[in-house]
UniProtKB/TrEMBL annotation:
Biological processes annotated in GO: dGTP catabolic process
Entry keyword annotation includes Hydrolase: yes
Alphabetical keyword list: Hydrolase
Name of the protein in its database record: Phosphohydrolase
Pfam families from the UniProt entry: HD
A single MF term (Gene Ontology): dGTPase activity
Length: 475
């Protein structure tokens, strides 16, 4: 079969059948992903973070194909499955890996809230996905819990790629199910290997996160991750009852993987400047909608006009230019000039130093019940406290923000679910004691205020906390 090689900076050469290149990669919906940054506005903090959903999708395809081909070398995995069945699973997996992010709107997660879920669910039903899940006995739960970009991706898979996938002898509904973590074939009673195919794309150890962890670390230059990717890939295994797992081969590198995953989250995704840059961009999208009466991102805009980062940035620029006295113009100027205000603390240790000492708890670790109570109080009352601070500092409310990671769903706690297979059973990495617990690796809310106002802001917050929550410290 003729193939095409694409040089990837993370995995080297990615080899694809020419039919996949022609039918999927070299199409307008997939090429749109070249203009959707993987890390939204984080390039304003890490200049190299210009990688996109396009190369990430190629990387996920490469890892998915490699892992599945390795599984097919394990006699235990191929038992009770025919060659034709394994070929079908692999074809489906490869297509699902390529297309799993095709529905991402501009700026990835930042603009998802502008996608009309009512419109999306109508399109999903019209595409036949609801009926397909019902016929397989899965029901509507996977579609109800799906993220907007996953729903939009499923619509695109069926409407734009249905004919091409069927030409590859791949069921487009099964591809959508893989994207959501299910296999309709497995639910209909096909061999357990079908379920493993779906897990490879959607599980605690899926190849999606394996690619973006390694890619985000390398492309940002953060250098917080150092683990043996090839050994990890070789360690994938599976069992009928337990599903996808990592064999004991992974023990030599899983610790580094876990530490790197946490570090990447804390110092890239949760970096205080990343949080601000992405919050600012998200706020600009909201201001655009308020000023123009139009959503900056729509389902039809992506389906029909192929909206991407560049197109929406141009809209923001024009709207800001036409309204020079607006909040949008002020925000846009701040964004383009990268004039980011200070945060009252950059990490949990600084938070404990500036606030935690008088709030009880373990001052050495910076992680006491009162400090945790303070951070919970900040997050739960962010809108009200932003208004309180703006009034106390005599600044517009849009110059004060309380926020944490712009992708809170990526909290590293989920890593405790990673299964390690040994002796015919699996146990999570938490059970094996491979998951650490360090005080400074806990996400915190940041408080952004104009330069020169940090000390006063901290004092206002401390006084408000003591007034509202009380001065008692735990025994």
């Amino acid at each position: 079969m003729p193939t095409t090689q694409i040089k990837d900076p993370v995995h080297g050469y990615v080899e694809l059948p020419d039919a996949l290149v022609e039918g999927v990669v070299d199409t307008r919906p997939f090429q749109r992903l070249r203009y959707v940054r993987q890390l939204s506005a984080t390039h304003l903090v890490y200049p190299g973070a210009n990688h996109t959903r396009f190369e990430h999708s190629l990387g996920v395809y490469h890892l998915g194909r490699t892992v599945f081909e390795n599984l097919r070398q394990q006699s235990y995995f191929t038992r009770d499955a025919t060659t034709d069945e394994l070929e079908e699973i692999q074809r489906t997996l490869e297509c699902a890996c390529l297309l799993h992010d095709v529905g991402h709107p501009p700026f990835s997660h930042l603009s998802e809230r502008f996608l009309d879920e009512g419109v999306l669910r109508d399109r999903v039903a019209e595409a036949g996905l609801v009926d397909a899940f019902d016929r397989a006995g899965v029901g509507g739960a996977p579609l109800r819990s799906a993220n907007p970009h996953e729903l939009l991706g499923c619509v695109i898979v069926v409407e734009e790629y249905g004919d091409a996938l069927r030409a590859f002898d791949v069921d487009p509904f099964e591809v959508c199910a893989y994207v959501l973590g299910y296999s309709l074939a497995y639910e209909r009673g096909e061999p357990w290997q079908y379920g493993v195919g779906a897990q490879l794309l959607h599980s605690p150890i899926d190849v999606d996160r394996l690619d973006y962890i390694t890619r985000d670390n390398e492309m940002t230059g953060a250098g917080v991750l150092s683990f043996d990717v090839e050994r990890m890939v070789d360690a994938y295994t599976a069992h009928p009852e337990e599903g996808l797992a990592l064999s004991e081969k992974a023990l030599s590198t899983i610790g580094n993987y876990l530490e790197g995953r946490i570090a990447l989250y804390m110092w890239v995704t949760q970096h205080h400047k990343s949080v601000y840059a992405n919050r600012l961009l998200q706020a600009m999208l909201g201001e655009y909608a308020a000023e123009t009466g139009e959503s900056p991102v729509t389902v039809d805009g992506i389906l029909d006009r192929e909206l991407d980062d560049n197109a929406v940035l141009e809209r923001l620029k024009l709207a800001a230019r036409e309204r020079p006295d607006s909040t949008l113009a002020s925000m846009h100027d701040r964004f383009r000039g990268r004039r980011f205000p200070a945060t009252c603390w950059k990490h949990r240790i600084a938070l404990a130093d500036r606030v935690g000492g008088d709030l009880g708890g373990d001052s050495e670790k910076g992680r006491g019940p009162r400090l945790d109570e303070f951070t919970t109080w900040l997050t739960a009352n962010d809108d009200r406290l932003e208004a309180l601070l703006a009034d106390a500092l005599d600044v517009p409310v849009h110059e004060v923000w309380i926020d944490r990671s712009y992708v809170p769903a990526y909290d590293p706690d989920e890593l405790e679910d990673i299964p390690i297979a040994y002796g015919g059973t699996t146990r999570s990495v938490g059970d094996w004691g491979l998951y650490g617990d360090r005080a400074f690796d806990v996400p915190i809310p940041f408080v952004f205020v104009p330069d020169g106002a940090k000390r006063r802001a901290i004092r206002v917050l401390r006084e408000a906390f003591e007034r509202e929550v009380g001065e008692e410290t735990p025994a």
